[in-house]
């Protein structure tokens, strides 16, 4: 038996052992065509394909999530027949809890040790290569970080977003609603919470492709101003405003919102932008927003949050999954806990009125985005490249699972610029949900 045959045989024995301990309706296909079912009678419709022995060598030498991401991006490892969501569904239906303790360590050693010494050079790398400084003004380049995420291709985003190109948590009137309906409902809910009125001036910080500012102008009669750091978003939003004939009511700038000076707005929205700010910059962020609001002006803050830990120090200790997300998708990104956000808002002159959790809505949103991108993946390969598309499929599916399982949440917080006297809000919130 040759060296290659011995390695395949050892992997087969290990796969049979795993299938006995925790049957999983999944197969692994090796570089020579050998199929290793991980359960008796595995259907074979969902398969992890390993293209070369070098892929296993890299995993054995560096068993980390970034290694997996790079291998998938390069095509050295692939999940055929579905997405991470399908894999999670199969794993969730099996008995995998505690499997690591029950594995035969000797069998595992014999299966994988031969790959430790093989050739296993890495690829070019697909992570963000710029500086990810924590503090604004201390080497942090927010424009470069934002453009790394958003300037892939507008056509790429159009493959999985709704027709209005809204790239934030949708709001489902019921769980069977389609994505377009849910995103329109979200835009309307934001406008209701801001209590927009005709003729008011509204600012959207990080306006994306212009969905909110256009909706607010069309349906609530406001004069809306949006700012973004993404050239691709700016180009799209500017053209959308022209196409809809809203030039007299909507303006878009390619500008850092911190450069807005001596301007005053009745209402301000920040939808899915705070995640880019960084925790060390949150006080300055809220102070500047307050400076742009009229007294008792309403601010709506919509942002992803992580659950608080026992201490702030433990909270700030990012797990491997989040570090990988930051490096490959969201350079410079950090998630606050909801208490930290509301503390910072109060500390910087806001009065909190309402906080509403939308976690399950974002889980549903990300699941639909994953399904849509996977269904259009060939077109996505042409727009953004195969490697980037595969990374994004991992990212969107991972986000869906995180929201569904409660690892992360998302909150909408309504606040006003604090002054003495009445808030100006109605006695109940019944009208929001009428």
Automatic annotation (TrEMBL):
Entry-linked Gene3D superfamilies: Vaccinia Virus protein VP39
Active site: 399
InterPro entries: CFA/CMAS, CMAS, SAM-dependent_MTases_sf
Molecular function via GO: methyltransferase activity
Protein name, as recorded: Class I SAM-dependent methyltransferase
Alphabetical UniProt keywords: Lipid metabolism, Methyltransferase, S-adenosyl-L-methionine, Transferase
Protein family (similarity comment): Belongs to the CFA/CMAS family.
Manganese found in the keyword field: no
UniProt record, GO biological process: lipid biosynthetic process; methylation
